[in-house]
Amino acid sequence: MEAKVITPEVISDFRNVLNALGRSVHTVARYLFDVTSFARFLDGKEATAEATREFRDSLMSRGYAPGSVNTKLASLFSFFHSLGWEGCKTPRVLIQKDAYISEDAELTLEEYRKLLAAARCPRHRLVMETLGGTGIRVSELRYFTLEDVRKRDIRVQCKRKIRRIMIPEELGRQLEAYAAERGITSGVIFRQASGKPLDRRTVWRFMKAAGKRAGLLSSKVHPHSLRKLFARMFLENGGTLEQLSDVLGHSSLETTRIYIKTSGAEHRRIVEGLGLVPATEEVEPEEAEPEETEAEETESEDGEKPGFSVRAGGKPRSAKKPFPRRKSKRRKGKRAKK
Predict the structure, then answer these.
(1) Quick check: 123 and 141 in contact, CB under 8 A?
(2) 148 three-class SS
(3) C-alpha distance from residue 112 to each of 4, 128, 192, 208, 217 (Å)
(4) What is the rounded distance in angstroms from the CA atom of residue 136 to the CA atom of residue 167?
C-alpha cells in the first residue's frame, strides 16, 4: 500500500484539480495554504485520521475559532477526496448555531453612510458603493467592465455559476463618470496602476482605514459586511428570500438565511415586545403591627370557649392548673420531719 505522505508534487497535482473544477483564485490559494500547513504539522509523517484529529485539536488549543478550524478541515477533506484518502478524515468541531448575530459584527445603514463619508478619495467611496449597492463579492469587482456598466447588466461568474447583477441607475452614472475621468475607454473599471483588476487586499486595507477614521468597530468593517447589509436591505424593501438567494449566488437558502439573521439589538426588541412578563407595580410597604402578648379567647364552633389561651409565640397555655404541684420536703438525716 502506498504511503500517504504529502509532498510538493502531491500539492501541485491538487492545484491542477482545483483549477480544473473552476475554483476561484482565492479558493485555490486558501485550500493550498491549509494543505501546506497540515503538511508542515506532519513533518514528513504519514497522513492518518489520528494525525488530522491532532491537527484539529492543535488549532483549537492555539485559539482558532471553531468556524476557522472547520474551514481548514474542509480544505483538507477536499484534498483527501481528490487522492482517495477518505480514511484520513476526522469529525468537524461541533458548533451550535446562534439565534442572532452579535451587535459588534453587524454594519448598520447609518454606519455604512459614515463609512462612505470617511473614504479618503472618490475611488474608495465608489468601490464601497459598488459592493454595497449590488451585494457582490469583493472578488467579483473584476467583472465590472465599462461595456457592461453602460448596459446596467453585469454577468458574474463565480464557483462555476454565472448570474446577472443589476446595477442601480445612480451607481451606473457614477461609474461612467469615474471611467471618463480616469480615461478608461473599455475593460475593467477598478484597476491597479499595473492595469490588473483591483485585488481584495487593497479593498480590505482602505476599508479598515476608513472605518477607523469614522470611529467604527474594526469587526464591523470589511467587504463581506457590505454584502450582508445589502441582503438585509433587499428584504426590508420587499424582496423575497428566494430572489435574494439568486442575487447573491447561493446554492442553498440555508446559506442565505445566515446573511439575514437579526442583530442582538433587534432580537432583544422582539423579545421585550412579547409582553409575556408583565411589569410589577410598586407597592408601599405596610406598617408593622405591634406584637400581641396574649391572644383573646375565641369561641369554638359549638359556642363554648376553649379552656386554654394562646401565648404570643403561638403555643397553647392552660387557663387553669387542675393539679397544683406539691412542694416536696427535703429529708434530714434518715427520716423526714413531720
Answers:
(1) no
(2) helix
(3) 49, 9, 25, 13, 12
(4) 11
pLDDT tens column, 126-165: 999 999 999 888 988 999 999 999 999 888 877 667 888 8
Low-confidence ranges of the chain (pLDDT < 70): 1, 96-104, 159-160, 258-271, 274-275, 279-338
- Tell me if 42 sits within 8 A of 6, measured CB to CB: yes
Name the grid cell of 323.
393539679
Domains of the chain (ranges, CATH numbers): 8-88 (1.10.150.130), 109-271 (1.10.443.10)
Judged on CB neighbours under 10 Å (0-12, 13-18, 19+), 12 is: exposed
Q: Which amino acid is at 13?
A: D
Of 128, 47, 113, 55, give the one whose Cα is nearest residue 80.
47
Q: Tell me how crowded residue 146 is: count the other CB atoms within 10 A of its CB.
A: 17
> Rounded CA gap, 117 and 110, in Å?
11
225 three-state secondary structure: helix
User: Model pTM?
Assistant: 0.58
